[in-house]
Amino acid sequence: MENPIIKLQNKISELTDTQRRVADYIIKHPLDVAFLTVDQLAGIVGTSTTTIMRLTFSVGYSGYTEFQKGLQEILRNRAAPQTRLEANIKGMGENNLWGRYAESQISSIQDTMNMISPEVLEETIEKIVSAERIICTSVRSGLPVAQYLTHGLNRLLGNTQMIVSDVSDWVDTIVNMSSNDLVIAISFPRYARRIIDFTETAKGNGVQVISITDSYSSPLMKHSDLILPCNSSSIAFHNSAVSSMFVADYLISAIAINYPERTKERLDKVNKILTNMNYHSLHE
Fold this sequence. Notes:
Number of helices: 14
Largest sheet: 5 strands, parallel
Helix content: 55-70%
Order of helices and strands: HHHHHHHHHEHEHEHEEHH
Strand content: 5-15%
Shape: globular
Number of strands: 5
C-alpha cells in the first residue's frame, strides 16, 4: 500500500496555502489524524471539510475515509518499534526533567522522520554532490546546524562555505552564483527576515535552494526547490536544533558512505596534512 504521508509530501508544492496547512498538520500528527473525523480535523486546522476533501482527492484518494484507512494501515505496520519506545519511556517519573526532555526529543526526531521521505533525502543528496559551490546560511538558533553542516560537507567535498545572513554582505556572493550552485538555508520560527531575503534573491538568480525549516508552511517554501521539515519544538522557550542536527548529520554520513570514491581521497589528504602538522593531541 502506498504511504499517504509520502503522497502528501510529493504533492506539497502544488497545494494551495490552506491545503498546505492541512497537509502540514497531517504530516506532523498522523496518529491523531488516523482517528479524527473530517469535521474534527477541519475544526483543529481551522478550515472547511471541503478543503480537506479536495486535498484527499488531489493525492489520489476517493475521499477522506479512504485516505484515513491508508493512514491507519501504515501506522499499524510500523507500530511495533514505537510501542517498544513508549514502553522504555514509561519508567520515567513525571518529575524526571531529564527523562521528559529525552522523550520530547525522541518524539521530535520521529516526527521529523515522518515528515521527510527517503525520496526527498535522496534528491537532496544528489543536489549536494552535483553542486559546484554550496553556501549554508542561517542566523541565531539555526547557526549551530549551519556550522556543523558546512564543516561536514566541506570536509567531504571541499566546496562549501557558511554565510551568516544578518551580518554578512551576501549580495556580493549571490550575484556570482548560478544554477550549478546550491544554497542550504536553515531557519525556524520566528523566521528571520534576512534568511527569507537570502533565499528569495538566490532563487531569483537561478540558484538551487534547499531549506531546512519547521514545516511546509514556512515562508522559505516558495523560494525553495526542496524542503526538509524538522520539528523544532522544545520543552522550554526556544527552538530546538536536535532534529535538524539529526538531519544534517544524516546528510553528511550518507554522502560519505554513498560516494566513497569521491570523498576518500580528499579525507586522506586532509588527514595527512593534519598529521604532519601534529594537529591532534595523542595520549600515549
